[in-house]
Amino acid sequence: MRQIHQLQTAWWVYPTAEHTRFQHIMGVMHLASQMVTQLYPSLKSVCPDAPSRGYVESLLRMAGLLHDVGHGPFGHFFDSHYLQGYGLTHESLGAHIIRTQLGEMLTKLRRNPFSQMEEAEHLDPEQIAWMIQRPQAGDAANRPQWLVFLRSLLCGIYTIDNMDFVLRDAYMTGYSQQSYDLERLIRYSFFTEKGLTIHERGMAALIRFMNVRAELFQTVYFHREVIAIDKTLEDLFAASKPWLLPGNPIEHLEAYQGFTEFSLLVDAPRWRHSNDPEQAEIGRKWNELLSRNIPWRFICERSLRFDEGDSQETTIFRSESFAVAAIRDVLPAELKDIPLKIALNRTVFRPNTRGPSDHQNFLYDSAQKKIKELTTDKIFRSLPVSRLICRIYAQDPSLAPQLAAALDRLVGNHAVDDLTNM
């Protein structure tokens, strides 16, 4: 974790943001204790079968500490461009590591800095492995309710994970020294029979948090130069796969655990000295990347808003490959084959899922003494479900006018007239 940057490739654009996954997971573990201090009394009230505070706190702390243990170089990018090829994510791989390599050690844990487990209690590594993964259909059927409720602190709207990285990343990039009110958000949170609930007095803090999180995605994680680097990495990773790992990380776990950004960024540029011409050429390109010679140039961008009932899947922006084909289709004939990349970066303001991760968070109306859906709050409901930034990258910046015009045709800024007066 000390050798994998928290900000994927954004640390190349924001020079002070050199923090790693290690600092982040330590912060998440700390937030776990803060949340348990606030939430345990209400959890025990609605789930009388919940174990001791010592068990709950130790469980959540370990889930926070280990939730990123499956990450590879460049974090989520590696999920999409390597692990996905083996049907894995960093969460499923992390769960495997917890079960097979860390389980015995976790069962021996007896206390944490703030509380202690009862004598007969022992941490269940399977519960930690389950908590760190995205909810799947039917996976909560045989789990105790208190554990299902606790998982919302790792997969809901505001979690011990995203509450840490929003504060940390905002501070380290210089975006903001205090981007949202963490203390108020925690103070007005509690468990009810429906799940994690926020008092109406905390809604302003929640909405501020949601907006800041979305702004960080748009201004930091999806910065135009960050995406240019990612687009360069896409090509490099595809070409480098034969030399990255022996195969499926689960089958070569020791090699995977030694595979970090530090090792990759030292080893890959050295490939240029290889006797294999193909590997040598790829090594040269890695060296160019480290010298910040990025072949892809930002050309233009347009933003699309998706509200309740809207679907990105029904648009031409359902995938990057589909969008590239659509762009080429409206370009002049002499430009249809130019080197071109499309980046579709989606920022989720508020979840709109109908799946297993739905219904993680609720609102308490103190006047009516009722627990309601968060969407009953008018300001919450006014937030977009998501926003999509569509960007074009090319290698020749002089083509910007034609490419921008083509993108405008696709997003609806171009009117197509009828052929006849009918």
Number of helices: 16
What's the overall geometry? globular
| Overall strand count | 7
CATH superfamily heading of the largest domain: Hypothetical protein af1432
- Give a quick account of the main beta sheet: strands, pairing sense, barrel closure: 4 strands, mixed
Q: N-to-C SSE series?
A: HHHHHHHHEEHHHHHEHEEEHEH
Mean pLDDT: 91
CATH architecture annotation of the largest domain:
Orthogonal Bundle
Enumerate the spans where pLDDT stays under 50 for 5 or more consecutive residues.
Answer: none
Number of domains: 3
Instruction: Give the helix proportion (percent range).
Output: 40-55%
Query: Would you state the CATH class of the largest domain?
Result: Mainly Alpha
Secondary structure class reads: alpha+beta
Distance between the termini: 65 Å
Beta-strand percent range:
5-15%
Q: Strands across the major sheet, in which order?
A: 1-2-5-6
Radius of gyration: 24 Å
CATH-derived topology of the largest domain: Hypothetical protein af1432
Pfam families: HD (PF01966)
GO molecular function: dGTPase activity
GO biological process, one term: dGTP catabolic process
Organism: Blastopirellula marina
Secondary structure layout plus pairing:
Elements: H1 21-46, H2 53-66, H3 76-81, H4 90-107, H5 125-131, H6 145-155, H7 160-173, H8 182-187, E1 189-192, E2 195-199, H9 203-221, H10 224-244, H11 253-257, H12 261-270, H13 277-290, E3 297-306, H14 320-330, E4 340-348, E5 361-365, E6 370-373, H15 378-382, E7 386-394, H16 400-411
Parallel strand pairs: 2-5
Antiparallel strand pairs: 1-2, 3-7, 4-7, 5-6
Helix pairs in contact: 1-2, 1-7, 2-5, 4-5, 7-9, 10-13, 12-13, 14-16
